[in-house]
Specification:
27 helices, 11 strands, 606 residues, alpha+beta
Amino acid sequence: MTDHFEASDDNDVWTAARWPGHEITQALQGLISGTGMWRNDALVGIERAGRYLAGGSGPDHVAEAPPPAGDGSWTRFLGRIAAVALRAAAPSTRPERREVLLNLLEVWARSPFPDPAYRFRTGQVTGAEGWGVRGASGAVLVTYWPKHGTGPFLEARRDGAEPPVAGTIGAPLDVPQGWGTRAQLCRLIELVRQRGPVPWDRGAVEQLAQATGMSTGAAALVLAGNPGAGSHSVPFLDAGERRVLGLTSAEAEDARQELDSLDALDRLQLLSAALPEEVSELWEPGGLRRVADRIAQEWTTHRPAGRAAPRATWEAALGLRTGLSATRLCGLFLEPDARVFPVRADERAASHRSVPLPLRSAYEDAVRGENRTGRGAWRALVQALPWAYADLPAGDPVRGGAPEAVRMLHGVLEPLRDASGRIPADDLWMHGLSAQQAEWLRGHVCARAMARIADRSLAEGRYESDPRACVPELVERVARHLGVEEAPAAYYLQVLALEAPTDRRVRRWMSWSPRELRAARAVLVGRGLLVEDKRPRAGRTAFLPGPWAHAAAPLPPMEQWKAPLLGATLSADGDTVQDVPLPAHTLPDLFALAWRRMTASQVSAG
């Protein structure tokens, strides 16, 4: 194959496979948009677009131009085909999808797109007749259905010549050249077919995560050429893919969420310089680590490297179900700043001014998606504040960032209040908050909880959910009253007061082994203070005597006795938890209140 593309005559038959549309969109998930537009002949359409732009024999006639391939978003591969190549070479890519990707790379290699003799421009054209126009100096092709007479175009020029005029062109953009000469593409295809995919290197994953602040799950997806999916309608990773990347199902989904703020162009751009000039380096020792270096450089050029949360904190955040990834949620505490606020449409437009999308409506959808992400960040932050206060140890950087995050939230919400002190419903909606959440942020419980974090009331490494750490005098009184040691007394307070004192959480809060927890539990069961049982979603085997309220996720099931203490709403028969509001007490107050309530009920019963 020559270094330069040579247009063929009409008798030359090109061999782009007619892959089913769903296989194409799954193979390219996250790198293209408008997946519903991609049909079986999409790769053939890309091939024909290349032939048309390159010229060749035949009259200069508009009717020769091919109709759109897919939704036209394939034009973003120009200068960024490395993203497709990296995914084709990754060991986690499913074999059937790898074949689609290699077929696309073969089509691309035979087109004028990797030819350095060509220069390409994209933009919007108004008043074009038909799908394109071409001449000896170049060609212009409309790449998607025009809307109100205006549609996206792709222009090809060879040797600096000006192509024919297709209509009124607005804001044309030169497409930068990047990795992916014809020789590089052919060499990568050859090596993948001969040697198989690139060997996976988990050290490269750790390297990329440390350099960028990504989670290791997100770094693995990026290195596999799969930095998030643009569609949730197809399975993201199957068991085999997760096994190669070393991810659990929860970690893979969280990593996808973490990268959801990237759109298709962001993903392509991130990987555009990932591959080496000499393709065979990918199969050499350290090859994937050099890929990680190049990706990290691209990442930090456009966004600061984020601070990483402690692994245990990140894992705890993984199960919170706030709608944000664990990394994104922890980042809101580690570096509370304007990233929490909803993104304005004009700011989005400014940051993506150089990005022509096929349709204006698609562009507006992207803006609305960013606003949803911003509102989700506000809501997730408020939901996670009680978690940071009660479920993270003193000295944890995520917990330590909570007071500043609340101060920032106050600084934005308070000016929105009207003369009566209320925040208008539209403003609350814009920030993704309910009236109850906004008032809780303003209330004394939130203020006192944040004050306890800020004044370092706890010794480093201790938990507010450990009564021995936050109310040691109360633990002593309970121990004397019950005639037990400190450990069972503290555990009894946790079962009395906390909505979800699961065995795993109690062991973490108390720094207990399973044997130590069993010993404390046995004392209380032996005194008749607790009963042993197995109950769905409880995560524990010791309960207060009395009726039980079930709950559907994410609400916690609990003893009915505990519901008034926590302000939980139960069904009319008391059998089901219907709502649990934000905390009405700090934990020291809650432990004390629970004990007073229990002793009062004992006196009343006596």
